[in-house]
What we know:
homodimer, Rossmann fold, 2 domains, globular, four-stranded mixed beta sheet, seven-stranded parallel beta sheet, 12 helices
Amino acid sequence: MKLAICGYGNIGRGVECAIAQNPDAELVGVFTRRDPAAVHTLTGAPVFPASSLDARAGDIDVLILCGGSATDLPAMTPQLAARCNVVDSFDTHARIPEHFANVDAAARKSGHVALISGGWDPGMFSLNRLYASAILPDGKDYTFWGRGVSQGHSDAVRRIPGVLDARQYTVPIPEALDAVRSGSMPELTTRQKHRREVYVVAAEGADRAAIERAVVTMPNYFDEYDTTVTFITAEEMRRDHAELPHGGFVFRTGKTGLNREHSHTIEYRLTLDSNPEFTAGVLVALARAVDRLAKRGETGCKTVFDVAPADLSPLSGEELRARLL
Amino acid sequence: MKLAICGYGNIGRGVECAIAQNPDAELVGVFTRRDPAAVHTLTGAPVFPASSLDARAGDIDVLILCGGSATDLPAMTPQLAARCNVVDSFDTHARIPEHFANVDAAARKSGHVALISGGWDPGMFSLNRLYASAILPDGKDYTFWGRGVSQGHSDAVRRIPGVLDARQYTVPIPEALDAVRSGSMPELTTRQKHRREVYVVAAEGADRAAIERAVVTMPNYFDEYDTTVTFITAEEMRRDHAELPHGGFVFRTGKTGLNREHSHTIEYRLTLDSNPEFTAGVLVALARAVDRLAKRGETGCKTVFDVAPADLSPLSGEELRARLL
């Protein structure tokens, strides 16, 4: 399958690397709204201006959209689904129904397949919530995130006066994980589930106490959590906090039996050195599925829920049954 | 959907309980090869002779086959797929391709849908192996089972002269789990991955040393493992070992990045108080999918790999996207 990348940030670079790991995938090139001459790809893949997409759409089986969910994808995905098959990683949970409707209308009209909200949450975590709730209808779900870098929370701290740079780690609380694993179906507050660790590079002479206060009391972002603020040097930030690790847990605990006498726990856990590279791995597997759906004549917007697992794998049905079932 | 059960052992009883937890499912009845008057169902569901299946097949959307994999299902599933839509839990991994071919031929000819090898391994564990290998193509899989009762190993011990009753627990070794979680992709021997705990009720006057020797040296079953044998009373067996807990872990660790510089671990873990009741929960969710596939006009043999996740859930696509994605 011939894949292309639209947008060349962390996820775009991750997709470029992931395509190199999949022998059945070929990278046609990277499309960018920047000056193509200023974009240097990791593998030497060609770079084209976004404006040339129309002319090259016929060479592309699936275009992987690597823009941001806040402003890029809401416009970009419907627009590009009008020209070719696409996959995106739209992750604003509350706006998924609206995004789905917009993309579905565009993809049906143009006769393409567009898969939205690929990645791990939404994505693999969502799949696990669905399978687990179908198997254990009498139960309770829990999702924990981390330990990992939250870009949104890091950005929020960077906007505080006197902050030069910041990194925020979301950390699940071990006692809460244990309580869920026990099957006791605890009710957990926001504060009981996660804590937040913030590392700040402050400007010279900045009021560190005021920065710390501004962080820990920030509404929505930090006020409902126990948060620690640690001041570090720019050198320490570069050395110790350059990576984007993440991960988390999806649990469902449920009861079965005539009198609900048996308890069960399903746990799905991700431990990721690189959030964007793992997300990219999911997107490339989903692009394979989109290519197959399109070649079977399907059209419209899809999510991970609509794709048979076999379509994500390069193996044939026969190979899958013999090796993985 | 109207479901029926064929075979009324541990899994059949589990399916009966699971159907009661799913408001969109109705239990038509239990079919048995025994004398129906001698079978008393947990919920008072009617019991019919297996011979009446032909006459009642028109009332059944999906028949859940709860026979054993060794001798029942290889004949039963193709035979019954000729009459109605079916789901089975065939779990002899090595014979799945052959079973698939037989069931597929029967189901295509009759125009029904037959899903084989539902449950957790094969089943949910297989799904996790597939998704994880599609996302992380450069990686390594590990499956661990337990802590849980293995019926096959318990039966093998029961056949030793002087043994009145026996229960075998398969136990994953914590150091092996930790080595896998570290992402170091260790090579693990059979002995390093699991140990076996055996509880035996011996006949009065039996040679306990000889029984222990017969257990720990038994080829295929125990000789490659560290096994402990504990002699207990019949009363202790009833009190402490009446349940059928099980579970296990599926891991994939893999590398990403231009120079494989990032490591990732995907872990799926089940902790089950009742192996047959959890298996039954999976079978009922799969029966829902089979009913939908059949109503869309599909035919032939399917596995968990071929079913879009949304088809396992009673929720609509719209509800799934809004609540679980």
